[in-house]
Amino acid sequence: ITVTLKIAKRLLESNGEAVSGQQLADEFGISRTAIWKHIKELEEKGYDIESVKRKGYRIVTTPDTLEPLGIQTGLKTKRIGQKIEYVESCASTQIIAHQLAQEGAPDGTVVLTETQTAGRGRMARKWDSAAKKGVWMSIILRPNVAPQKAPQFTLVTAVAIVRAIEEVTKLQPKIKWPNDILLNGKKCTGILTELQSDADGIQALIIGIGLNVNQEKEDFDPEVQEIATSLKMASGETVNRQKLVQSVLFYMELYTQMYIDEGFGMLKILWESYSTTIGHPVRARMANHTLEGIAEGITDEGVLQLRTPDGKLHGIYSADIEMANSTS
Ligand code: BTX
């Protein structure tokens, strides 16, 4: 990173205390005038820096970007996010992450962008990714688990995101099986888990997360305006995307490690506690038939258990779920 960014990092790590120009000059081995020029450069980049007389410089706010410096300062993880690939714009962070994984990127590598021109959902659906209003991110994990354990990472990711949203805002999101996170019944987050595997097992999991943060209704594509929401629309407050990413990465590290070490048990309980589906009558639309019944729970494999009125229990692997008002 450049000297300018190193100075920003130094100021951010002083926990709100001002650092004098002389001290910075000594530490970086350059003149006070040179320090002042770097400070001006940071201000041009969008940093709000206060210069306190006789005390020095203090960063009041950082620019609203997802650049690694802002994310990594104050990041409480050991693995996830230690390496961040940031691009201002791209087709899809999934494409970049797949490429990096193939080139050997380490476990925990994160790809972040401000906007995607070809963001994707499951089954080649489109993911609307408004510029600078959301978090468009892919995480590369290299867990030493069997390929059939991969689908649960989507459920574990959903729990991590709900916890992060709860921590950073006052909102209480719900999870709709398998991978939607909802606020007031509308979708605020999508998760897409993809796999690179060979005869030896999982080479890499590429977990794509699309989190609507500060959009207004009109920032969404017209075709999703009625079904999508953002944290700002639901809470009425602008949300700091850096803090949100830090929190998501923290819970991702905590819960994916818990899943790898201890299995799905505890996480299943957490997942079910956040779910809108479990305990309710639902309609599951599958490729060529529809089933209605009560969603009783999920199995350790993440399969939805649906009991139809004739008493039979069905395992649902893939479907679109709607809440049904009655099971008759
Ligand atoms: P999904 O298939 O469950 O959901 C896709 C559907 O969601 C779309 O067909 C559309 O109806 C709706 N939709 C599209 N955009 C939005 C939006 N911004 N908010 C709410 N609803 C929307 C979900 O797939 C998985 C999405 C993963 C997105 C991330 S972003 C970073 C990474 N890169 C990438 O290309 N995809 C992932």
Descriptive overview:
The protein is an alpha+beta fold. The chain has 3 domains: 3-61, Orthogonal Bundle (Arc Repressor Mutant, subunit A), CATH 1.10.10.10; 68-274, 2-Layer Sandwich (BirA Bifunctional Protein, domain 2); 281-323, SH3 type barrels (Roll), CATH 2.30.30.100. It is 30% helix and 28% strand. The protein has 9 helices and 14 strands. The protein has helices spanning 3-12, 21-28, 32-44, 68-72, 93-102, 152-168, 231-235, 241-262, 265-274; strands at residues 48-52, 56-61, 84-90, 110-116, 134-141, 174-176, 180-183, 186-198, 201-212, 281-285, 290-298, 304-307, 313-316, 320-323. The strands form 3 sheets. A 7-stranded mixed sheet has the order 3-4-5-9-8-7-6, sandwiched between helices. A 5-stranded antiparallel sheet has the order 13-12-11-10-14, with no helix packed on it. Strands 1-2 form a two-stranded antiparallel sheet. A hairpin with a 4-residue loop joins strand 10 (281-285) and strand 11. The radius of gyration is 22 Å and the shape is elongated. The mean pLDDT is 93. Residues 92-94, 116, 119-122, 125-128, 136-138, 179, 187, 190-192, 208-210, 212, 224, 227-228 line the site of ligand BTX. This is Bifunctional ligase/repressor BirA.
